[in-house]
């Protein structure tokens, strides 16, 4: 039986307000839509829920406010059985997002970080050798950088989803075990590195393993073990809001079980195809048995 290592997610937890609209609003326009709903979200929490539902031993570290939105932001994590002992309450409002979703499942998102801007790497408890440490870019980048270097020093495996794209200390970037980016984030990074935006070029420029998600065209990765390409699973997209978060969380869960990168990517792609067929972000993340069925397991 594979050894199950813990996954620690350091990142954002938000309360999402989701608005179904007939079309995404353009600048200066007001669009009337259907009934809005409130749901838990934030890239960190979404990825943590995806990993926990896929079977990971999951610990979440982050910050919320002392307000009525904190319970909503953490609700899916609690339901998924995540360890929330490293979540701190701070004197700032809980992070929140306004999400417009059109009939094709495309989205437009505005985020107020709130308490997430006060998340601190120092609040993450000691890490175990081989533990997966998953991060995103909705907390201060200097805190991500500090945790990446600390994870390496403690023998853990730091994984960063460069979403949303933003600068990170170069030493920390090159210390990653794995970098995950979508096409837009890969292009942003490639422009700063002076290379092409594909996984092979980014791996060559950084010297680390890089995975690039390509939406309906699947995903690719390149590292010391070579190049991998994984096709997307067919899906009828209802809401793509949490697709990338699902992919990252399930990837981390699979890696924590000792799965090879190619196998972890395939499972992540299967899970993401399920998530986009449902409304919401954290609430849309599939359970392990659903992904198993899609994979024929």
TrEMBL record:
<dbReference type="InterPro" id="IPR011877">
    <property type="entry name" value="Ribokinase"/>
</dbReference>
<feature type="binding site">
    <location>
        <position position="280"/>
    </location>
    <ligand>
        <name>K(+)</name>
    </ligand>
</feature>
<protein>
    <recommendedName>
        <fullName>Ribokinase</fullName>
        <ecNumber>2.7.1.15</ecNumber>
    </recommendedName>
</protein>
<dbReference type="GO" id="GO:0004747">
    <property type="term" value="F:ribokinase activity"/>
</dbReference>
<feature type="binding site">
    <location>
        <position position="275"/>
    </location>
    <ligand>
        <name>K(+)</name>
    </ligand>
</feature>
<feature type="binding site">
    <location>
        <position position="245"/>
    </location>
    <ligand>
        <name>substrate</name>
    </ligand>
</feature>
<comment type="similarity">
    <text>Belongs to the carbohydrate kinase PfkB family. Ribokinase subfamily.</text>
</comment>
<comment type="pathway">
    <text>Carbohydrate metabolism; D-ribose degradation; D-ribose 5-phosphate from beta-D-ribopyranose: step 2/2.</text>
</comment>
<keyword id="KW-0547">Nucleotide-binding</keyword>
<feature type="binding site">
    <location>
        <position position="239"/>
    </location>
    <ligand>
        <name>K(+)</name>
    </ligand>
</feature>
<keyword id="KW-0479">Metal-binding</keyword>
<feature type="binding site">
    <location>
        <begin position="213"/>
        <end position="218"/>
    </location>
    <ligand>
        <name>ATP</name>
    </ligand>
</feature>
<keyword id="KW-0067">ATP-binding</keyword>
<dbReference type="GO" id="GO:0019303">
    <property type="term" value="P:D-ribose catabolic process"/>
</dbReference>
<keyword id="KW-0418">Kinase</keyword>
<dbReference type="InterPro" id="IPR002139">
    <property type="entry name" value="Ribo/fructo_kinase"/>
</dbReference>
<feature type="binding site">
    <location>
        <begin position="244"/>
        <end position="245"/>
    </location>
    <ligand>
        <name>ATP</name>
    </ligand>
</feature>
<keyword id="KW-0630">Potassium</keyword>
<feature type="binding site">
    <location>
        <position position="138"/>
    </location>
    <ligand>
        <name>substrate</name>
    </ligand>
</feature>
<keyword id="KW-0963">Cytoplasm</keyword>
<dbReference type="InterPro" id="IPR011611">
    <property type="entry name" value="PfkB_dom"/>
</dbReference>
<dbReference type="GO" id="GO:0005524">
    <property type="term" value="F:ATP binding"/>
</dbReference>
<comment type="function">
    <text>Catalyzes the phosphorylation of ribose at O-5 in a reaction requiring ATP and magnesium. The resulting D-ribose-5-phosphate can then be used either for sythesis of nucleotides, histidine, and tryptophan, or as a component of the pentose phosphate pathway.</text>
</comment>
<feature type="binding site">
    <location>
        <begin position="14"/>
        <end position="16"/>
    </location>
    <ligand>
        <name>substrate</name>
    </ligand>
</feature>
<dbReference type="GO" id="GO:0046872">
    <property type="term" value="F:metal ion binding"/>
</dbReference>
<feature type="binding site">
    <location>
        <position position="241"/>
    </location>
    <ligand>
        <name>K(+)</name>
    </ligand>
</feature>
<keyword id="KW-0460">Magnesium</keyword>
<keyword id="KW-0808">Transferase</keyword>
<feature type="binding site">
    <location>
        <position position="182"/>
    </location>
    <ligand>
        <name>ATP</name>
    </ligand>
</feature>
<dbReference type="Pfam" id="PF00294">
    <property type="entry name" value="PfkB"/>
</dbReference>
<feature type="binding site">
    <location>
        <begin position="42"/>
        <end position="46"/>
    </location>
    <ligand>
        <name>substrate</name>
    </ligand>
</feature>
<feature type="binding site">
    <location>
        <position position="278"/>
    </location>
    <ligand>
        <name>K(+)</name>
    </ligand>
</feature>
<feature type="active site" description="Proton acceptor">
    <location>
        <position position="245"/>
    </location>
</feature>
<comment type="subunit">
    <text>Homodimer.</text>
</comment>
<feature type="domain" description="Carbohydrate kinase PfkB">
    <location>
        <begin position="7"/>
        <end position="286"/>
    </location>
</feature>
<keyword id="KW-0119">Carbohydrate metabolism</keyword>
<dbReference type="InterPro" id="IPR029056">
    <property type="entry name" value="Ribokinase-like"/>
</dbReference>
<dbReference type="GO" id="GO:0005829">
    <property type="term" value="C:cytosol"/>
</dbReference>
